[in-house]
Amino acid sequence: MASKRGALIVLEGVDRAGKTTQCNKLVQALIERGRPAEMMRFPDRSTTIGQLISAYLQKKSDLEDHTVHLLFSANRWELVPVMKKKLEQGITLVVDRYAFSGVAFTSAKPGFSLDWCMKPDEGLPKPDLVMFLQLNPAEAALRGQFGTERYETSAFQKAVHERFEQLMKDSSVNWKVIDASQNIEGVHNDIRTHSLNVFNEAQNTPLGELWR
Ligand code: TMP
After folding, report:
1. For the Thymidylate kinase-like domain, which residue ranges apply (predicted)?
2. CA of 137 relative to ligand 1 center, distance in Å
């Protein structure tokens, strides 16, 4: 019998919501329960495309807005063969940001529609579960100053948050909203519970295509 595929689990949210910490903790918890799991993150800054994106985010280079949007998408597509292989091998992937960040960030810029922004990512492997770490701007502010990368301003993050709210209305995606204002363990418990709940379904259904 063919081995069961892994689940594709994505964590999204605005900056400082604790995505990276929670991805690491989830991978650890899954492994402890005997479920092979690995973390991935987008952008993956290690590839040639990822290095272009990284220089842009660090403001070491400027890129035209449509161009950088397509590079973020290309950075996901270039990893698709690796993702599919791992999922087929039964490895669950816990992904820090995905196409939803791509759409939310670019469409927060003037002149970009959600539709246009979604097109390049249409057909990517569809996550079995997308958890949005919800944190209001006042709570985010308590967690300290923004960094110095592009997009790290409260006005832009507010616009991004609004775009995420719009994306979450799409019932073709399995969204769960997580209250990220709880302590780290509280957030982790919620994330772990939702993740363990999707395993059965993920194992018994083929990997879908996003936004198709
Ligand atoms: P991070 O590496 O700290 O998560 O930051 C990546 C930044 O890039 C963050 O501000 C969100 C933004 N971003 C996009 O604009 N488009 C994308 O497709 C992704 C994945 C991230």
Report:
1. 11-191
2. 18
> How much of the chain, in percent, has pLDDT values that exceed 90?
87
Nearest Cα residue to atom 1 of ligand 1: 43
Assess whether pLDDT exceeds 80 at residue 137. no
Q: Ligand 1 pocket: which of 44, 56, 101, 156 to mutate (most atoms <8 Å of CB)?
A: 101
ipTM over 0.85: yes
Q: Residue 1, class by beta-carbon neighbours within 10 Å (0-12 exposed, 13-18 middle, 19+ buried)?
A: exposed
Mean pLDDT across the chain: 95
pLDDT digits (tens, 9 = 90+) for 156-170: 999 999 999 999 999
